[in-house]
Fold this protein.
Amino acid sequence: MPNIRIMTLDDYDAVTDLMRNTPGISLRDADSREATARYLERNPGMSFVAEVGGVLVACMMCGHDGRRGYLQHLLVLPAYRRQGVANALVERCLTSLAQLGIRKCHLDVFKTNESAARYWQGQGWQLRTDIDRYSFTRQGDDNA
Ligand SMILES: CC(C)(COP(=O)(O)OP(=O)(O)OC[C@H]1O[C@@H](n2cnc3c(N)ncnc32)[C@H](O)[C@@H]1OP(=O)(O)O)[C@@H](O)C(=O)NCCC(=O)NCCS
C-alpha cells in the first residue's frame, strides 16, 4: 500500500501532472498554484497524497465551509487502482472533517464520468436528484 501523507504546496506540480494525465479530470482556474495555496492554507491538513518511493501515485483534496465538507480531485494512477488507495484517501479526508464536527460531505462528478459514479455509489454515496447546482462567474478586475 502506498504511503499516505498530508498534501503540501510542494506537491502542486506532481498533483497537477496527475490531473492532466487522467481522463475524466479537468484542470480549471481554481487549480492555479495561487488558488491551491489559498485552499491548503484555509483547510490545513485535510488534503492527502499517496506515494511510492517518493513518486506521487494518488491524491485527494478536501475542504469545508464550516458546515459541510467538500471533496475534490480524487485520482489514483491506473497501476495502483483496486488496492484500496482511494478508499484510504477518502477515509483520511472524512476523518479530518469529523474531527471538526463536520459529518456531511459533498462532491461533484462530471455526468460523463460513469466509472467515478460507479465508485461513489458503490461506496454508499448518495446521488442527489433533488438539487441542481447553479454557478455564476463574476467578470472583470481580479483585484476588485
Ligand atoms: C475512481 C478511482 C479514484 C478509484 O480508485 P481505487 O484506488 O482503484 O479505488 P479503491 O481500490 O479504493 O476501491 C475501493 C472500492 O471501490 C471499488 N471500485 C474502485 N473503482 C471502481 C469503479 N471504477 N467502479 C466501481 N467500483 C470501483 C473497488 O472494487 C473497491 O470495492 P470494495 O470496497 O468492495 O473492495 C480511480 O479509478 C481513479 O483514479 N479514476 C480516475 C479519476 C476519477 O475519475 N476520479 C473521480 C473523480 S470524481
Observations:
- The domain at 3-122 is CATH 3.40.630.30 (Aminopeptidase).
- The radius of gyration is 15 Å.
- Residues 85-98 form the longest helix (14 residues).
- The longest strand covers residues 55-64.
